[in-house]
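Bumping with the actual sequence this time:
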Amino acid sequence: MGREFREFLVKQNALALAVGVIIGAALGRVVSSLVADVLMPVISLGMPRGDWRASKIILSQTVGPDGKEVINSINYGTLLGTIVDFVVVAFVVFLVVRQFMKPTAAAPTKVCTFCLETVPAEAKKCRACTSAL
């Protein structure tokens, strides 16, 4: 049973997927912290009220039965902050994937002079018409 499970992990790339998910989650937290703790304070300097993640449109404001203030609002600052987090995380993931997944050069090819089939440059015979190249 243990051997079967190990073979499943190796054959199905489940282990690689699990490692990718764990690293992706950790990278997401690092980038979110970078955005919240480094990037956003700099952006907040340019905002008139500073903490833009707390920005909201107040629809109504009442006093509840317990005497506490009840505010009904649309919290657009939280939405914008989440969108900025997503864009930065997506950009960092793009950079990481681009770094590790370099496109491979296409194998050199040539064209058969008899049937015009494209074949590898090292081929001695055409795979379509079997003529010598």
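The tokens above came from a reply further down the thread. The mean pLDDT is 82.
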